């Protein structure tokens, strides 16, 4: 519903906003964009938090923000997120926003801007984490508000997280991704506490609602490659999206999964239907009045919108059953 | 509506001349230098684009004569440069630009505020560059306006269907909100809600005698719209 769609939109990352006191540290990122206009800023929030920004317009023409993050850097996991049986469940955001453009993504409702924002002070996050690790083991999701794998050429953060985690025995991390890169396995050493969690969706959903993301075939190829390189892999059928004929669509997807990868060796599975906090959904409905996904007549339960209970259970039961039939001993986590 | 404010009369004349000559027939409002309130930028909350064209007097060292898009104002304000353009860019510290940006950004999104600085002589080439930029702004705004018109038509249809159904269901306010949500989803998802309502009518499920019956029929409407599992 906004101008600046393809054709009239600027090329991605034509503008890079950099906090002026970290310019030299940002060189490794900016050198990837020799033609970009560098705009020095005092604080990333002067750009990121501008009122009335066009999320849709910025998705079509994203600019990059490079900044230093202050204050608290590690947060307790949100109720809608799965803890996979871990007592001390946290997440962190060393990058905000994503290179992909999924219509259902909660970031659309959460952030005032779609511009990817890279925080260069990863060491500060590591320091805060060291403090937590002194108290108890930590299960940390590092790729929730972004897709770190897709940013790896720019940031190198996946490699740094892998190295840091390997050297801290009480730390387990999850790197959630839709990225289909296979070349990274040659530079990432496998560690049983670094879990690569692939979001897997039916191709029908990918084509219609996950703009810019790799196809199902490419994702499964990446999963297969990760497993061949001994990386623990989690498959996330989450969020499941309700569409007409969803059973056939998800069954077809799962058939493709089992035909292409050795599902017996998947570490565990996540199954969850689309759910979102009420405030985010309200923002998304305002932003996308024509979206079939966000305008579904959800039920509001404890501040979160979700599919009506019967539908939610049928979708998640159905997916779980497909998994169990193929992998009887599968460990399946649900919200 | 595109609103253009000129710091110098010479700009006003050239733009008016261009649009009259080209016969675009587009609505371009031209204001003089002085804006004392945001009324000149947005009327009744109606979205518009805003262009400020001015003569640069500061921070000219290292810049050739030309027209520049301003990407930073006084180390604090940043127009969102989403519109494609080959125009060179620069920052400005000029106080009057800051004041105008603050007024504009109080009512407009940052991607609809365009600040253009003319450095040096305003030649015919530069006039054409400015006119070309304004054309792009107009096209983007026209596309938005078309979308908005479609949206209004859809909203009107949602309201019409909702009101009829609500009356037949003796709906309370909360039921009416539910009906509106169902109707909206059905129209977006290409579910023939009008046919569904008509069929419910032919089956004796509509209209109903009271609100209690209305709740039952609303549940049935939900089942028919939302699918298999309900």
Which second-level CATH architecture of the largest domain in chain B applies?
3-Layer(aba) Sandwich
Helix proportion range of chain B: 40-55%
Describe the main β-sheet of chain A briefly: 8 strands, mixed
Kindly estimate the percentage of residues of chain A that lie in beta strands according to DSSP.
15-25%
Determine the structural class of chain B based on helices, strands and strand pairing.
alpha/beta
Shape by Cα distribution of chain B: elongated
- Give me the side-by-side strand order of the main sheet of chain B: 2-1-3-6-4-5
Kindly state the percentage of residues in helix of chain A. Answer: 25-40%
The sequence of SSEs of chain B as H and E is: EHEEEEHEHHHH
- Total of domains of chain B: 2
Question: What is the averaged pLDDT score of chain A?
Answer: 95
Structure explained in plain terms:
The complex is a heterodimer of chains A (335) and B (230). Chain A has 335 residues and is α/β, with parallel strands linked by helices. Chain A has helices at 27-30, 45-48, 55-60, 107-110, 122-135, 152-155, 157-166, 203-209, 216-228, 246-260, 278-287, 309-326, and strands at 15-19, 37-41, 64-67, 74-76, 89-92, 95-96, 101-102, 117-119, 138-141, 171-177, 194-199, 210-211, 233-240, 268-273, 275-277, 299-301, 304-306, 332-333. In chain A, the strands form four sheets. In chain A, strands 4-5-9-10-11-13-14-18 form an eight-stranded mixed sheet. In chain A, helix 9 (216-228) packs parallel to helix 10 and helix 10 (246-260) packs parallel to helix 12 (309-326). Chain A starts with 14 loop residues before the first strand and ends with a strand. With 230 residues, chain B is of the alpha/beta class. Chain B has two domains: 2-147, Aminopeptidase; 170-226, no CATH class. Chain B has helices spanning 9-22, 95-105, 124-169, 173-188, 193-202, 211-226, and strands at 2-6, 28-31, 49-55, 66-73, 89-92, 113-119. The chains are: A alpha/beta (335), B alpha/beta (230). At the A-B interface, strand 2, helix 3 and helix 12 of A face helix 3, helix 4 and helix 6 of B.
């Amino acid at each position: 519903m906004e101008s600046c769609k393809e054709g009239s939109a600027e090329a991605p990352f034509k503008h890079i906003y950099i906090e002026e006191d970290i310019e030299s540290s940002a060189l490794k990122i900016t050198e990837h964009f020799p033609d970009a206009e560098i705009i020095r800023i005092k604080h990333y929030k002067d750009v990121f938090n501008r009122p009335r920004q066009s999320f849709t317009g910025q998705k079509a023409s994203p600019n990059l923000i490079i900044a230093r993050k202050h204050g608290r850097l590690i947060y307790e996991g949100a109720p809608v997120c799965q803890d996979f049986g871990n007592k001390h469940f946290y997440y962190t955001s060393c990058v905000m926003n994503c290179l992909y453009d999924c219509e259902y993504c909660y970031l659309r409702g959460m952030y005032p801007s779609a511009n990817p924002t890279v925080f260069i002070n990863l060491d500060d996050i590591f320091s805060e984490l060291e403090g937590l690790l002194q108290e108890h083991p930590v299960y940390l999701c590092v790729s929730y508000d972004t897709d770190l794998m897709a940013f790896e050429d720019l940031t190198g953060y996946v490699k740094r997280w892998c190295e840091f985690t390997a050297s801290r025995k009480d730390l387990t991390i999850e790197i959630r991704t839709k990225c289909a890169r296979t070349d990274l396995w040659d530079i990432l050493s496998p560690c049983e506490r670094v879990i690569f969690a692939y979001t897997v969706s039916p191709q029908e959903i990918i084509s219609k609602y996950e703009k810019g993301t790799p196809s199902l075939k490419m994702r499964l190829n990446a999963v297969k490659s990760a497993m061949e390189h001994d990386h623990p892999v989690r498959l996330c059928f989450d969020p499941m999206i309700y569409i007409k004929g969803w059973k056939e669509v998800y069954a077809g997807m799962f058939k493709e999964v089992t035909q292409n990868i050795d599902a017996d060796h998947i570490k565990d599975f996540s199954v969850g239907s689309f759910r979102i906090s009420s405030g985010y959904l309200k923002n998304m409905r305002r932003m996308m009045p024509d979206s079939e996904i966000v305008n579904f007549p959800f039920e509001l339960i404890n501040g979160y919108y979700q599919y009506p209970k019967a539908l939610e259970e049928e979708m998640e039961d159905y997916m779980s059953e497909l998994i169990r039939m193929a992998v009887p001993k599968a460990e399946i986590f649900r919200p | 509506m595109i609103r253009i404010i000129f710091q110098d009369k010479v700009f006003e004349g050239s733009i008016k001349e261009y649009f009259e000559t080209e016969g675009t027939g587009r609505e371009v409002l031209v204001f003089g230098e002085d804006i004392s309130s945001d009324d000149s930028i947005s009327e009744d909350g109606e979205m518009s684009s805003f262009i400020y064209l001015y003569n640069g007097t500061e921070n000219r060292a290292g810049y050739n004569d030309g027209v520049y898009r301003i990407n930073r104002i006084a180390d604090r304000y940043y127009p969102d440069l989403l519109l494609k353009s080959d125009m060179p860019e620069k920052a400005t510290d000029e106080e009057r630009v800051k004041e105008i940006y603050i007024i504009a950004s109080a009512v407009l999104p940052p991607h609809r505020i365009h600040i253009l600085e003319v450095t040096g002589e305003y030649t015919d080439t530069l006039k054409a560059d400015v006119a070309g930029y304004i054309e792009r702004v107009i096209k983007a705004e026209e596309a938005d306006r078309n979308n908005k018109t479609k949206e209004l038509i859809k909203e009107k249809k949602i309201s019409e269907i909702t009101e009829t159904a609500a009356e037949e269901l003796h709906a309370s306010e909360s039921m009416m909100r539910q009906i509106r949500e169902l109707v909206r989803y059905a129209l977006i998802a290409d579910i023939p809600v009008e046919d569904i309502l008509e069929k419910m009518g032919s089956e004796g499920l509509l209209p109903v005698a009271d609100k209690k019956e209305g709740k039952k029929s609303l549940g049935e409407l939900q089942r028919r719209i939302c699918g298999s599992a309900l």
